[in-house]
Amino acid sequence: MSTELNGMPSPLTTSPRATMKDVAALAGVSLKTVSRVINEESTVNAEMVERVLAAASELRYQPNFGASALRRSDRRSSQIAVLLEDLSNPFSAAIYRSIEEVAMREGFTVLGASFDEDPSREPALVGTMIRHRVDGIVIAPASQEHAYLEVEQQAGTPIVFVDRPPVNLRADCVMSDSYAGSMEAVKHLAAQGHRRIAYLGDLSTIVTAQERFRGYRDALKELSLEQDPALMSKNLRTVEAAEAAVAAMLALDAPPTAIFTGQNLLTIAAVRALRTAGREYDVALVGFDDFLLADLLRPGVTVVAQDPWRIGQIAASLLFRRLRGEQGPAERMIVSTELRERGSGEIALS
Amino acid sequence: MSTELNGMPSPLTTSPRATMKDVAALAGVSLKTVSRVINEESTVNAEMVERVLAAASELRYQPNFGASALRRSDRRSSQIAVLLEDLSNPFSAAIYRSIEEVAMREGFTVLGASFDEDPSREPALVGTMIRHRVDGIVIAPASQEHAYLEVEQQAGTPIVFVDRPPVNLRADCVMSDSYAGSMEAVKHLAAQGHRRIAYLGDLSTIVTAQERFRGYRDALKELSLEQDPALMSKNLRTVEAAEAAVAAMLALDAPPTAIFTGQNLLTIAAVRALRTAGREYDVALVGFDDFLLADLLRPGVTVVAQDPWRIGQIAASLLFRRLRGEQGPAERMIVSTELRERGSGEIALS
DNA sequence: CTGAAAGCGCTTACAG
DNA sequence: CTGAAAGCGCTTACAG
Predict the structure, then answer these.
(1) What are residue B34's phi and psi, to 5 degrees?
(2) Would you say residue B75 has pLDDT above 60?
(3) Candidates B10, B11, B111; nearest CB to A111
(4) Are A2 and B332 within 8 A, CB to CB?
(5) In the predicted model, is pLDDT for residue A347 greater than 50?
(6) What whole-number distance in Å separates Cα of residue B204 and Cα of residue A343?
(7) The pLDDT value given to residue A334
(8) Residue B13: which of A69, A90, A154 has the nearest Cβ?
(9) How many whole angstroms separate alpha carbon B125 and alpha carbon B130?
(10) Which of A100, A214, A253, B60 is deepest in the core (most CB within 10 A)?
């Protein structure tokens, strides 16, 4: 397990990094010639190219992107920012990876950061990214007011919204079809005979949570099912709160026979609550957003799946299109969801 | 769902970003005075501070970190790189978030990138990060040779390894105790009476995979259990391969009665294979590394849990200590694992 | 094809 | 307390 090298003192000598000037001196050419070789301009004499490359390699020269960006006319930093709610949430992580893949292909690096659903951190983090002069921003916003970003757009920094739309700002946006997906979930439950379908939802300030609730309620209306406020629980922020909400509903005189959960963690909370009550084969359940191992639970959990990889690909391609100078109006892309039947959603009304 | 603003043409005007010079001109002071105010040097006249801040705010001035770093004597970019195998793997994601949290507190941003277990991408990505002049690097290496990083260390860039140790390089390192954790897992299975305990492992080139196998084998030796090569499957790279390996073992004349899996995805594969064979309540299972919902499966999956959050905290604190100039020898921190009994590992030999 | 001078947006080192 | 000059590591714009 242990390498002999470890435990020995680290070298105290720090040799400063070589600059282009050092390379020029060693190769016996001018600064500008080194610059040409490093940037692969074709107009340089082959012999000089060789001399410069040898010197660069001997000094282990690494060009300074930042210094180069500062002087270049495009002033591009080759960095983009990806700001998400929580990188450790699988939905966010998949979007991040998807964008990272495109960025890498385009020669860009990604500055990533998480809001943890704290709206006040949003402008602060965006500010930090702007001070680092990122060339573009992909953001799943935590706040409800984005006018402050207009000045960044006008400074030429494209901004693409994912998962949630911009408020008071014209910007490209890629989202799942929350409304249609929720409607499909509720109709699927109704098709199994259920008439008392409960709803569990995230913070109502979040636009997607509003949309999912609207899909739920409009489906009930369309199907002429009763809308019982006792079966609707919104603003659930923790797994514990969601579990308690389900337990309370199950204890009602007229309990729900089916549940639609508007989010990942709420779905898992519902599974736990149904298990605790011993009702998991009895009360139907459909969740919005898929999660790992949903198929291995018993019963398997039926979900309306989002496609975070696709959302990321579209967002990244919009961003890089803007970076290439495309000017058109702000685009709004809606990515459809997919019902995945696994058992819990197919439990019929007994 | 739709904001009226969307669909309208974006503003075509791009007003360039204000510089410190612009702020100085508007405030009627010198460049240097603006610099003093922006950097909160206390020696500035209160009235001037006000004038400068008003001008900065009117122009929506955002200082340019890169330009400032270029000239400052410390030449710090306030960026660190976090290079992991795959940010969408929960283990990596937790480490990332943990480091991000410390970095943010220290006023640093994080450049994140994933290797996807491709060793050749490692030096390439590190090179990119160096060209961006990150101040430090946290890396879960994909390669088996890190001498190339010595020049970066000597240029003053601290490098901290996580999850896997450096090879041919002296550097700080934070890892789980793979050997002890694996040994504990196997002994736990043996304590339930099992004598034919199988092993499933990741690529043998990965040091942690080697350590976990060593822990497994040494436990067998210590307990005087037979070492049957037919019960050892290494170099498993996909869930499918792992499922097939388990299926093949179960079909042996002398099948295993218990399984130890050396990694996350292999554990899930084993669960699937046991389910398919209808043996999940029959063959015991302990996995290395915990995963979400392991407790909700039936039987619950017993694991040797790592503590990625803690690994990240330690790695980040080592890194920032080095950035503050601490010189001591390279440190190797071992984070202990924790056996979590949930059912699958407590199935006794029948 | 090659190079000397100027300058990107800032901070340093120095005067006043 | 305030500012004019020089320079960080590069590229631009121009000469030769």
Answers:
(1) -60, -45
(2) yes
(3) B111
(4) yes
(5) yes
(6) 39
(7) 97
(8) A154
(9) 9
(10) A100
